[in-house]
Amino acid sequence: MDDDLVGALSFIKSSAHRQKILESLSSTIKTPSEIAKETDMRLNHTSMYLGELKKKRLIICLNEGSRKGRLYQITGLGKRVLEILNRE
């Protein structure tokens, strides 16, 4: 396992909320509102966690310049993290 993957695993395992959001994005592209509703989290908390996940390159924002209706997608690194977590 490389250092990026180990760091990402540790980051996700340390927060159930981050893991919920990552799992929410595992199947399709979503907006923060859709993620908040699906994970039963407040929108402001969802946005904060999305920012954290984006900094760690686990997700990307497809339309960064938009103020409303931003779309988020899981990255290859994010998918690898979920695959490992789902094996446990």
In summary, what is this structure?
This protein has a single domain, classed as Winged helix-like DNA-binding domain superfamily/Winged helix DNA-binding domain (Arc Repressor Mutant, subunit A), CATH 1.10.10.10. It is 60% helix and 7% strand.
Task: Name its key features.
88 residues; mainly alpha; Arc Repressor Mutant, subunit A; 5 helices; 60% helix; globular
Architecture overview:
- With 88 residues, this protein is mainly alpha-helical.
- The chain has one domain (3-87): Winged helix-like DNA-binding domain superfamily/Winged helix DNA-binding domain (Arc Repressor Mutant, subunit A, Orthogonal Bundle).
- The protein is 60% helix and 7% strand.
- The protein contains 5 helices and 2 strands.
- It has helices spanning 3-13, 16-24, 32-39, 43-55, 76-87, and strands spanning 59-61, 72-74.
- Strands 1-2 form a two-stranded antiparallel sheet.
- Helix 3 (32-39) packs across helix 4 (43-55).
- It starts with a helix and ends with a helix.
- 23% of the residues are buried.
- The mean pLDDT is 95.
